[in-house]
């Protein structure tokens, strides 16, 4: 496994590093100290601050540099560990709890974007999972059933032919947030298009033809 954080420089990381103007004195007291300035740490700090707590957030690099900075800016309720695996190892009730937590996290991000007027092109769209052979189709069926049982809005299986696709199903309420507006290579505005059968929102530079999905 390669080290993800900082392994490659993403669009989000190729920005001036935020430098705090707050002075930290050894005599100052805080209610909570949060380690890590990614979306999880910053969202936690914001919630605690809204609740009236004095928070100190510590970040070794730049804000949102690590895992958050290396993402493709999609906010997903379908996790790396499938709901089938979660259900098998921890029970169906816990799979439902995990799904509910994932949806609440998306709702929190959506609320913060609205409340603080964050210009990031947030939108809700459908995500597609597909199979290319019989074995993958069987796994897909299991994923569909377990995701539906956990509480995701999953459409019935669609029989499609797309890049030799055997089966596919869309997951509703898949979200995208995109803060980049221009290609830093040529200082040109990115063009937004809806590509392929999934109609996924994609940004690209007309000059260098590099996609920023």
Give a description of the structure.
This protein has 213 residues and is of the alpha+beta class. It has three domains: 1-71, no CATH class; 72-178, no CATH class; 180-213. 29% of the residues lie in helices and 21% in strands. The chain has four helices and ten strands. The chain has a three-stranded antiparallel β-sheet with strand order 3-5-4. Strands 8-9-10 form a three-stranded antiparallel β-sheet, with no helix packed on it. α2 crosses α3 (92-115) and α3 packs across α4. The longest helix has 24 residues, at 92-115.
Key descriptive features of the protein:
213 residues; alpha+beta; 3 domains; 3-stranded antiparallel sheet; 4 helices; 29% helix; 21% strand; disordered C terminus
Outline the secondary-structure elements:
Layout: E1 32-35, H1 39-50, E2 55-58, E3 74-75, H2 83-90, H3 92-115, E4 123-131, H4 134-150, E5 167-176, E6 182-183, E7 188-189, E8 191-195, E9 200-204, E10 211-212
Parallel strand pairs: 1-2
Antiparallel strand pairs: 3-5, 4-5, 6-7, 8-9, 9-10
Helix pairs in contact: 2-3, 3-4
């Amino acid at each position: 496994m390669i080290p993800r954080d900082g392994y490659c420089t993403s669009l989000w990381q190729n920005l001036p590093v935020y430098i705090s103007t707050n002075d930290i004195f050894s005599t100052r007291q805080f209610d909570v100290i949060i380690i890590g300035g990614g979306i999880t740490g910053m969202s936690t700090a914001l919630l605690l601050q809204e609740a009236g707590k004095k928070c100190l957030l510590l970040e070794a690099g730049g804000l949102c540099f690590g895992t958050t900075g290396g993402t493709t800016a999609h906010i997903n309720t379908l996790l790396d560990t499938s709901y089938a695996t979660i259900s098998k190892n921890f029970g169906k009730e816990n799979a439902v709890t995990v799904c509910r937590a994932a949806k609440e996290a998306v709702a929190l991000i959506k609320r913060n974007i609205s409340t603080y007027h964050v210009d990031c092109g947030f939108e809700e769209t459908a995500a597609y999972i597909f199979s290319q052979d019989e074995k993958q189709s069987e796994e897909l069926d299991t994923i569909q059933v377990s995701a539906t049982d956990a509480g995701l809005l999953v459409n019935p299986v669609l029989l499609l032919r797309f890049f030799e696709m055997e089966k596919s199903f869309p997951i509703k309420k898949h979200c995208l947030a995109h803060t980049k507006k221009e290609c830093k290579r040529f200082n040109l505005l990115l063009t937004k298009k809806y590509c392929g059968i999934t109609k996924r929102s994609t940004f690209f530079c007309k000059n260098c033809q590099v996609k920023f999905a």
